[in-house]
Amino acid sequence: MEKRHLTRVIAVAVIALIVFAVAIAAVALGMSQGGGLFGPTGDRVAMVRVNGVIYDSRSVIAHLQRYANDDRVKAIVLRVDSPGGGVAASQEIYQELVRLRQEKNKTIVVSMGSVAASGGYYLACGANHVVANPGTVTGSIGVIAEWYNYGSLLDMAGLKPELVKSGALKDIGSPVRPMTPEERVVLQSMIDRMYNQFVGVVVEARAGKQGLDETKIRALADGRVFTGDEAFENGLVDELGNERTAILAAAKLVGINGEPVVVEPPVQKSFTLLDLLTETDVTELTAKGLPGGSPSGASMQFGYIWK
C-alpha cells in the first residue's frame, strides 16, 4: 500500500510540474507578444521591421503573413530602415502589403527610420499612411546596375578567359571585357522599364496628394534623396514623426482608442561563426542577414538601392 501511495504522490507531482511548465510557457509567450498572462486581448497593432539591404523578401513576408489571418490585428506598422535593395525583392514585399490591404482589410502604416530610400521608399508606396522623421533620408526613386570589370587585371596576370556561347548577348555584362554599344542599349532598356515600374507605383500611391501628378513625380524621381521634411513638403510622405507617431496613427486609422497594444514577431536568432562553417547554402545565409553582396551570385545586379 505504501508503494502504491508513493507512486500516486510521484505521479501527482509530475503532473503538477507539467502543468506548471505549460503555464510558464504560456506566460512567456504572452509576454513576448506584448500582452498579459496569455497574450494580448482585443484589437492590436502589429510591428514588422525591415532593416538593412533588401536582398531577400522571405522573412519580411513571413512576418506579414503571421498577422494576415489574425482578426485581432487591425493595423500593421512597417518600420523601414533600409537603403533599398534588389528590384524583385522590393516588389515582392510591396505586393504583399497591397494584398494585405485589399484581401485582408489590414491598414498599413510605414514608419521611416534613419534611411528609407529607393526600395525602402518603394515599400512605403504600399501603405495607407507614411510617417518620416524630419531627418530621414528617403526618395532615391530610380534603378541602378553596376559591376566591376577586371579584364585589365587578367591581362596583367597573363590570363585570358575562354568562352563558348549561344548568342551575341549571352554574356552581357561580362566583367572580363568592355561592354559593347549593343549591350548598353539592351541594359538601358531594362533599366528604363524597371524605372517606369517604380514611377508607376509612386504615381498610384501619391498622385493627388499636395497637387502631385505624374509629371511632378517624374521631376522628383531623378534618383535624388530628400530629408524627411523635404519629402513631406513634396507630398512623398504624409506626416512627420517617429515610430510612436506611426503607431498612434495606425491605431487612430482603425478606431483603437487609448494606448494600443503592440505585438511583434519573435526576434530571429542571428547567425554565428558555426553557421558560416556548417551552412552549405550561401543564399540561405544571406537571407539570414550575411552582409556583403547579393545572394543570387550574379556579377551584375539591378537595384532599387541608394548608393
Describe the structure.
By secondary structure, the protein is α/β, with parallel strands linked by helices. It has two domains: about 10-40; about 45-140 and about 195-305, 2-enoyl-CoA Hydratase, Chain A, domain 1. The protein is built from eleven helices and eleven strands. The strands form two sheets. Strands 1, 2, 4, 5, 6, 8, 9 and 10 form an eight-stranded mixed beta sheet that branches. Helix 2 (about 60-70) runs parallel beside helix 3. The termini are far apart.
Secondary structure layout plus pairing:
Elements: H1 2-32, E1 44-51, H2 58-68, E2 73-82, E3 84-86, H3 87-103, E4 107-117, H4 119-124, E5 129-132, E6 137-139, E7 144-146, H5 151-157, H6 181-206, H7 214-220, E8 225-227, H8 228-233, E9 239-240, H9 243-253, E10 261-263, H10 273-278, H11 282-287, E11 301-305
Parallel strand pairs: 1-2, 1-10, 2-4, 4-5, 4-6, 5-9
Antiparallel strand pairs: 3-11, 6-8, 7-11
Helix pairs in contact: 2-3
| Overall number of structural domains | 2
Distance between the termini: 80 Å
Instruction: Note the overall shape.
Output: globular
SS class: alpha/beta
Assembly state of the chains shown:
single chain
Mean pLDDT: 85
- Please state roughly what percent of the residues sit in beta strands, choosing from under 5%, 5-15%, 15-25%, 25-35%, 35-45% or over 45%: 15-25%
Instruction: Give the CATH level 1 class of the largest domain.
Output: Alpha Beta
User: How many alpha or pi helices?
Assistant: 11
The CATH superfamily of the largest domain bears the name 2-enoyl-CoA Hydratase, Chain A, domain 1
CATH architecture name of the largest domain: Alpha-Beta Complex
Helical fraction: 40-55%
- Give a short account of the largest sheet: 8 strands, mixed
At the third CATH level, what is the topology name of the largest domain? Answer: 2-enoyl-CoA Hydratase, Chain A, domain 1
Low-confidence stretches: 26-40, 279-293
Report the strand count: 11
Radius of gyration: 25 Å
Order of helices and strands: HEHEEHEHEEEHHHEHEHEHHE
